[in-house]
């Protein structure tokens, strides 16, 4: 793969930079309104949520605290198993805090379902979820997600934080990978 031909690795663009920026600004406005008068701790899930976190908090005018977690789902290959290991925990005590988890994408929902339960056990005032993308067809568990950027079909997407083999995270748009990339 030639580094200079990243775009030829994609079959189509699902959301452009402009569309993502506009949608993230809408989510930020909604969140600001819902949390009016309350401090919020925004928890980004590394590494995929880096881009949406950065854009989401910059679109807000209120005070927000930010923290990060890294988790890994055990499981064969690319499938999530629901058995989660914490690679990097929060630096923040959640007691009495309003927590907003920020994710790039919810596929099976297993990772986030585990994470929400884990954070809820730490005594926060509330825990809500914001995800840029959700694949409704793939949902294995019922999970209450308050803020969703886009519902997408069950296909593998990259860009705007989302990777394939640690690549494509730096794209400012979201697209689907061409089959030749897999082979
Ligand atoms: P879940 O437990 O919801 O099945 O797993 C969610 C995680 O799987 C996401 O945080 C992401 O790392 C990965 N994932 C799921 N679907 C996609 C996709 O379409 N593209 C990419 N790049 N990662 C995905
Ligand atoms: Mg993620
Ligand atoms: Mg990944």
From TrEMBL:
EC number of this enzyme: 2.4.2.8
GO cellular component: cytosol
Cofactor(s) for this UniProt protein: Mg(2+)
The Phosphoribosyltransferase domain, residue ranges: 15-164
Example of a GO biological process term: purine ribonucleoside salvage
Catalytic activity: IMP + diphosphate = hypoxanthine + 5-phospho-alpha-D-ribose 1-diphosphate; GMP + diphosphate = guanine + 5-phospho-alpha-D-ribose 1-diphosphate
Keyword field contains Repressor: no
Stored InterPro entries: HGPRT, Hxn_phspho_trans, PRTase-like, PRTase_dom
Enzyme class: transferase
Alphabetic keyword roster: Cytoplasm, Glycosyltransferase, Magnesium, Metal-binding, Nucleotide-binding, Purine salvage, Transferase
Localization, UniProt: Cytoplasm
Gene Ontology MF terms: guanine phosphoribosyltransferase activity; hypoxanthine phosphoribosyltransferase activity; magnesium ion binding; nucleotide binding
Known pathway: Purine metabolism; GMP biosynthesis via salvage pathway; GMP from guanine: step 1/1; Purine metabolism; IMP biosynthesis via salvage pathway; IMP from hypoxanthine: step 1/1
PANTHER family named among the record's database cross-references: HYPOXANTHINE PHOSPHORIBOSYLTRANSFERASE, HYPOXANTHINE-GUANINE PHOSPHORIBOSYLTRANSFERASE
Family to which this protein belongs: Belongs to the purine/pyrimidine phosphoribosyltransferase family.
Protein's name in the database: Hypoxanthine phosphoribosyltransferase
UniProt lineage: Bacteria, Bacillati, Actinomycetota, Actinomycetes, Micrococcales
